[in-house]
């Protein structure tokens, strides 16, 4: 079934898919018929334990009953109005109550839209044109964010600068992640409107900030009157209710959100200081609009998801399962004498083969992608789905209970033994 669908898809879509990482599964992607809890069910009759989780949004697993019921309730009331609805006020209040930097918020439709708007706001607020980002940080599929981006572009060995005007590229300055010296030099010599950073890199595999890096960014941007933007599309509500900024106690000027705040439905948001958010139309002169901004279904799913996070032990379960999975993998690889490094924080981790440390994109790119892909394929044969790309992240969720973890550990043992 999947093979036949793939053949048809190749006739219909560029490369057979609608997002490139989906084509990384070889010889062709498996097609999913349904999903529930921690499992994907393919059209070929296979059941897979899912550690991709839509690449991060499904922190409660698939079809969490409370979220599903709230979506159905909203669906029965209508799914697009073109006017404000009460549920958008409720989600905004939820987010602002938890995210330290959030005084006001604007909902959009994706992480890409959120980062694009955050950069526009930074320019509008400061009157400057240039932005600073980090090699391998991925901020969505818009022109400014794609300069020296990570993830699928690296996986497929393509330049993310193709199709981007030189005038745009010339407004983006690049530093290596964890390199404060470079940041200080750029801020001193260039008129930078904003520094945008993934507080934890999640699109070059998982790469953690070194001690003092985020604090240094905050100090430097404040010294040079530059806005600090945290891209928390991945980390928002995953590291805790207060996101990475609460986890590390570093408060940016603007925060972009997505993924988890939509409960698995399309969403994005920019949150931050009132004086900055108020620059958006209609109160200010920085333009933003969207037919589907604050879509009622996404709002309902987001409110329901955060309510579950507030009252259930999702973070504990997700952390424990990621820890058990990663520690077993680490132990088995050490016994085999395989060179690797494994980066983990809370419910996120990734393993890099052939390298002893990964603190930036340059080191990540030196890892053995082919060996990682063999592990991915072997895990898939054992009924466990981890990302097909070295440069994505393995995620756990609140439904990865001890039963799921034990089945995963058995699969890991078989895979590493065979390798």
Automatic annotation (TrEMBL):
Its cofactor is pyridoxal 5'-phosphate. One of its GO terms (cellular component) is cytoplasm. It is found in: Cytoplasm. CDD domains: OAT_like. InterPro entries: 4pyrrol_synth_GluAld_NH2Trfase (IPR004639), Aminotrans_3 (IPR005814), Aminotrans_3_PPA_site (IPR049704), PyrdxlP-dep_Trfase (IPR015424), PyrdxlP-dep_Trfase_major (IPR015421), PyrdxlP-dep_Trfase_small (IPR015422). GO terms for biological process: protoporphyrinogen IX biosynthetic process. Pfam families: Aminotran_3. It comes from the Archaea. Its EC number is 5.4.3.8. Pathway: Porphyrin-containing compound metabolism; protoporphyrin-IX biosynthesis; 5-aminolevulinate from L-glutamyl-tRNA(Glu): step 2/2. Keywords: Cytoplasm, Isomerase, Porphyrin biosynthesis, Pyridoxal phosphate. It is an enzyme of class 5 (isomerase). One of its GO terms (molecular function) is transaminase activity. The modification N6-(pyridoxal phosphate)lysine is found at residue 259. SUPFAM superfamilies: PLP-dependent transferases (SSF53383). It catalyses: (S)-4-amino-5-oxopentanoate = 5-aminolevulinate. PANTHER family: GLUTAMATE-1-SEMIALDEHYDE 2,1-AMINOMUTASE, GLUTAMATE-1-SEMIALDEHYDE 2,1-AMINOMUTASE 1, CHLOROPLASTIC-RELATED. Belongs to the class-III pyridoxal-phosphate-dependent aminotransferase family. HemL subfamily. This is Glutamate-1-semialdehyde 2,1-aminomutase. The gene is hemL.
